[in-house]
Every structure is written in structure tokens, then in C-alpha cells.
Design a protein that fits this description.
Low-confidence stretches: 4-8, 10-45
Number of strands: 17
Distance between the termini: 127 Å
Radius of gyration: 29 Å
Largest sheet: 5 strands, mixed
Strand content: 15-25%
CATH topology of the largest domain: D-Maltodextrin-Binding Protein, domain 2
Strand order of the largest sheet: 2-1-3-15-6
Number of helices: 22
Shape: globular
């Protein structure tokens, strides 16, 4: 029988062994550590650093922004940050660029902003944006953005944004209405005369079209005009005519070789004359709808109802305007797909949309003769940028940039663009099934072969506003000739940029419409 001393020694040894084992377990050194009350996740949550970022964007991009924010916040937790994102979403119907410009000027804009890319030169020159050069050069994804998309977001050698979508413009038309007027459902005008001829054919069948569709008003052709449309008047309307009105370099607002703004030219005269013919001579456009509070929503609705047969607009309208999740879906397609849901409904609807909605390239005035463009379109799109105020807080600046990389990631952009029929600015978007399988995007991507860009250099926004004002006067009948419109434009341009910064070219005033 062991002595009392031996027994005491054994007990002491057991106590020491148990104590050591317990200590090891408490430090996570044993296999049972995962069962301890203080889990790693709980411990991490107590040490996360709280940071607040603000993001400002228009409602059309909510399905791009919200998934990116959710994933960003979760991933940042793994890196030790509890990032609160305060969203400021500008609703449909408001002029997004105007709101953001006001907020930037007042110093109240978000840390991260989604802006119309044409505003980047103006914002950068005003000192509102933080240059992204050091960020993009270390971002592997930057190589997936083609040079054209990099050029749009650059100004004076610096990168100020990342494109999140791009676009082209075309003539949208209703196939069913064209059929009533004896026009082909695969219509593709080759000259401006073809457009005028289609307008006359549609007007000749106006009573039949109204009766068939159950509408009490009808307009063959809608080209945006006036200040209510904002930049859309200049880009979707005026530029689409200007670019096809003469051969380069005379078919622009700015002469890059001379470094001056074009005050008078044949192209400018023809562009103003085109508006006059549509709204005053042929009375083909819906004058009153250029002045409603929500011009975007209204133009989609009247096209969807068949009140307008042709609509000069952007590539996003296939999904955002008249698609299954659009702002003004086609009632005929909703009825045709009633009873279906989810993917089955979407596929049914899109198949139906192809039967009712067509799109055609905008031709040049002579369809390629005399060195003029055969077809024209223009691209823009929206970009995500950083507020320069972030330079005061490097940690927030780094996090804000990381948020941009989530918003502009391949899958996030590709899925968003596929959903709304937008053209993705990333080359690798085609690797994402949702985008690669979209038949519409395959067809419209062809337009990128001949697309052009705005002369968006300061003070372009003021010049754009001048064009909007003049087209508004044409629509209202306050300006009754292209001569008068051109004189007013030249005078206004000189007031904006100074007489020394303009150039005038001879103007060929040959009629562009034969009646």
C-alpha cells in the first residue's frame, strides 16, 4: 500500500496535468477549442472598427449598387471593418446630374457617386473628384475595360472614374404599327429621306392605327427636345442628327485640330432643320410630351401604348423601358404570358417583345455618300467616382475605392446589364452566362463598331444647355427657321466660350426634305 506522501504526490500531479490541459484549451490549443463559448466570430465582432461611407446614385442603378454593398460589407468584416453604408438614392423623374452637381457644389455629395460620364471633365476641373490613377494601375480588372471606356472617364491625363455601363442609340419602332402602314418589320432606313418617307406612310394610316390600338392620339416620330430632357436632348436627339449631317470633322460641336468650338457649319444647320421638319413641317413629334415633369417615364409609356411609332432613344430601353421588369411593359406581352412566373414568364415576355419592338441604326443624311457616315450612334454611360473630400481620411478613401471594385466587378456589372439590356463596359462580361445568353445584347453590340462620343470638355454642359433651349424654341414654334436657330446658337456659343474660341465654316443650305 503506497504511503500517504506518494498519494499526495499523485494527486498533485493530476491537478497540474488537468490545469495545463485546461489552459491549453482556453488558448485554443486543443481539438475541442471550437466548442468553447468564446468563438472566433464572436471575438472578432467585438473588435471590428466602425466606418461610415455614403453613396449617392440614381434609382436606375439600385440593382447594381445594393448587391455590391451587401457583399462588400460582409467581406470587410473579415478584414476587421464594420462598414455602415448610407445610401442616397435619387428617384426616377429627377434630373440626376443636376442633383449631384448641386450636392457637389454645396459640399454635401456622397463619398462614392454614380455620375453621367459626360460630367467627369467638368467635375474634375472644378476639383470635385479624386483621381484614381494609383488605384487602377494596381487593379487587375482595369485591363478588362477597353480603351474607349477608359477614355470616357479620363480628363487631362488622369482617370477619375470606372464605367459601370455603356450604351448606344438607335431608332426604336413598333413592328405591329409598321405592318399596319405597309412598312417592313425589319425596317432599316439608309438615308434621312427613308425616315421622312416612313413618317408620311404612318401618317397616312393614322386613323387605322388609332382604331386598332384604341388610342386617341398618334405621333410617328419622337426625337427628344427641350430643357426638360436635359442632356438626353443633346445626346439622344441632336448628336444623332449632327453626326450624320456632314462628313468629319465638320459633324461635331468641337474642332479638335483647331482647338475651337464650331459656331456655324452645314451639319449644325441641317441638325436644326431636321428638328424643324419633324415638329413644324411634318408635325410628326409629340410636342407636349417634351414638357411634362417626367419625360422619361412618359416617353416609355406612350411608346408602349403605341401612341408613338418611332422613338429615338438608348439601348437600355429594351429592358429598362419595355422589358418584363421595365417601367412601361407591353400590355400585349403581359397578357400573352399571363399565368407564367419567374424565368418562364421572363422568357415568354422577351419572345413576345421581339414580335412588337424593333430597332434600326440611325442613318447619315445620304447613307454614306459624299464621305458622310452611313450610320451613326453615340455612346456614353455612367461611371462610379470618388468625392475628393475623401483625401482627408486615407482609411475611408481606401475603403471607398474597395467599394468601387465591388460595384464594378465582372459578375455584378454583367448581371445588371443583362437584366436591363445595357451594354457592359467590361470585355469579360461575356464570360457570365446571363450576359452571354442575351440575344438582344449580341445584336446591339454591333453598334459599337461605328459609335462616337460627345465633345464633353468644359464648358460642354453650358453648350449642351444652349442646344436644349434652341430645340425647345423650335418645338414651340418660337424659332421658325434653321437660319434663325443657327444664328442664335452661334451668338450663344460666343457668349459662353468667347469669340476667339470659335470657328465658322461655310453653310450649305440645300433642302434636306423634298415634301
Amino acid at each position: 500500500m503506497p504511503s500517504k506522501a506518494v498519494i499526495v504526490g499523485i494527486v498533485v500531479a493530476i491537478i497540474i496535468i488537468v490545469g495545463v490541459a485546461a489552459a491549453l484549451l482556453m488558448r485554443g490549443g486543443g481539438g475541442a477549442a471550437t466548442t468553447t463559448p468564446s468563438s472566433p466570430a464572436t471575438t472578432a465582432s467585438l473588435t471590428l472598427k466602425k466606418v461610415t461611407l455614403t453613396i449617392e446614385y440614381g434609382e436606375p442603378w439600385k440593382d447594381l449598387v445594393k448587391p455590391a454593398i451587401e457583399k462588400f460589407r460582409e467581406d470587410m468584416k473579415k478584414q476587421g471593418y464594420d462598414v455602415e453604408i448610407k445610401e442616397s438614392m435619387i428617384p426616377y423623374g429627377q434630373d440626376i446630374s443636376q442633383v449631384i452637381t448641386q450636392h457637389l457644389a454645396a459640399g454635401t455629395a456622397g463619398d462614392v457617386l454614380i455620375v453621367d460620364s459626360f460630367m467627369i471633365p467638368s467635375y474634375a476641373s472644378a476639383g470635385y473628384l479624386y483621381p484614381l490613377d494609383d488605384f487602377v494601375k494596381n487593379w487587375p480588372d482595369w485591363n478588362q475595360f477597353p480603351d474607349s471606356m477608359k477614355k470616357i472617364v479620363s480628363y487631362k491625363g488622369h482617370v477619375y472614374g470606372v464605367m459601370i455601363d455603356t450604351d448606344v442609340r438607335m431608332i426604336w419602332f413598333r413592328k405591329d404599327i409598321f405592318k399596319m402602314a405597309g412598312l417592313p418589320e425589319d425596317w432599316q432606313p439608309k438615308t434621312w429621306k427613308d425616315i421622312f418617307d416612313a413618317i408620311k406612310a404612318l401618317k397616312a394610316h393614322e386613323d387605322e392605327i388609332k382604331k386598332t390600338l384604341g388610342i386617341d392620339e398618334f405621333y410617328p416620330f419622337y426625337i427628344p427636345a427641350g430643357t426638360q430632357w436635359g442632356e438626353a436632348t443633346t445626346m439622344q436627339g441632336f448628336y444623332m442628327v449632327l453626326l450624320g449631317a456632314d462628313k468629319p470633322p465638320y459633324n461635331r460641336l468641337y474642332d479638335y485640330e483647331k482647338g475651337k468650338w464650331i459656331c456655324k457649319s452645314t451639319a449644325l444647320w441641317r441638325a436644326f432643320e431636321f428638328y424643324r421638319i419633324i415638329y413644324q413641317v411634318l408635325k410628326a413629334g409629340p410636342t407636349k410630351y417634351n414638357f411634362v415633369s417626367d419625360v422619361w417615364g412618359t416617353h416609355r409609356e406612350i411608346f408602349s401604348k403605341g401612341i408613338v411609332a418611332m422613338d429615338l432613344g438608348g439601348s437600355w430601353e429594351w429592358g429598362e423601358g419595355w422589358g418584363p421588369s421595365g417601367k412601361a411593359p407591353l400590355k400585349a406581352c403581359q397578357e400573352a404570358c399571363k399565368g407564367k412566373s419567374g424565368k418562364d414568364y421572363e422568357q415568354c415576355y422577351v419572345d413576345c417583345e421581339w414580335k412588337y419592338v424593333g430597332f434600326a441604326k440611325m442613318p447619315g443624311i445620304t447613307g454614306g455618300a459624299n464621305g458622310e457616315p452611313a450610320f451613326v450612334t453615340i455612346s456614353g454611360g455612367w461611371a462610379v467616382v470618388l468625392n475628393k473630400n475623401l483625401e482627408k481620411d486615407k482609411e475611408k478613401l481606401e475603403l471607398a475605392w474597395k467599394l468601387i471594385t465591388y460595384i464594378a466587378s465582372r459578375d455584378n456589372i454583367a448581371k445588371f446589364c443583362a437584366k436591363y439590356g445595357k451594354i457592359a463596359p467590361r470585355l469579360d462580361a461575356t464570360q457570365v452566362p446571363e450576359y452571354a445568353q442575351n440575344e438582344y445584347l449580341k445584336k446591339v453590340t454591333e453598334y459599337l463598331k461605328f459609335t462616337d462620343f460627345r465633345d464633353a470638355i468644359p464648358p460642354y454642359p453650358e453648350i449642351s444647355k444652349l442646344i436644349q433651349e434652341i430645340t425647345e424654341k423650335i418645338v414651340k414654334g418660337e424659332i421658325k427657321s434653321a437660319d434663325e436657330a443657327l444664328e442664335e446658337y452661334c451668338k450663344g456659343l460666343k457668349d459662353i466660350v468667347g469669340e476667339d474660341n470659335v470657328v465658322e465654316y461655310p453653310v450649305n443650305k440645300s433642302p434636306i426634305y423634298g415634301g
